[in-house]
User: What shape does this take?
Amino acid sequence: MIKIDNFNKLIVANWKLNGDLALINDFKDRIKPENLNINNNCLIICPPAPYISYFTGDDYILGSQDCSVYNEGAYTGEISAKILKEIGCETCIIGHSERRIIFKENENSDLISKKLRNCLNNELIPILCIGENIDQKRKKMTKITLKNQLNIISKDFNHKNLIIAYEPVWAIGTGLIPSLDEISSNLDFIRNDVLRDKKIKILYGGSVKGSNYKSILNLDSVDGLLIGGASINIDDFSKIINF
Ligand code: PGA
Assistant: This one.
């Protein structure tokens, strides 16, 4: 298992259902993670699953965007945490809001909790996504929502092997971002009040771009960024990883 506490800031590229071989070649030509490594920062690349093997674990830390709740068997189309580990993945995004919303029955808290366990049993670091939607934000229910979403983390979980990504649903792909104070306050809440672990790694995600990443990444409470749209825009992304 990679030791995530060795890293300073973590940048995660979530390509979602985007990208092709041409983008992979362009990305590999122009995005060189060495600069990040010098300062103990790291780049985790999460392309669509069939493309993961086009990247090598020597240059990038590889991640999947999801894994199955099943470990093996007659589950056509599923990809297990064990397979992901075997092809070189070190991390796996779990509970992304797009999956929670679009694939409801496959991404409820019970199943998310099973996926977390599957990851840990197969030495994959889960990147657990949590965040409030616009309705919850308007009703001032952000903190209770985050607390509820974190209920699945039982006491025996080793926080050293877990990354949390705070991604307000209303900020994903919309160009909207919370104020820096809001980000800090929500991350402090997760770290100090819910998980009570000063060292837990927490990322921010939602409309991070070349024009706004710096002030977010400079917040003490932010251990890194989970980046969707801007991670497939090579010009924008190369700015971000050369911070
Ligand atoms: P975005 O997506 O950067 O395109 O807002 C972030 C995410 O969904 O992880």
The beta strands are 10-14, 42-46, 61-64, 89-94, 125-130, 163-166, 201-205, 224-227. The longest helix spans residues 180-194.
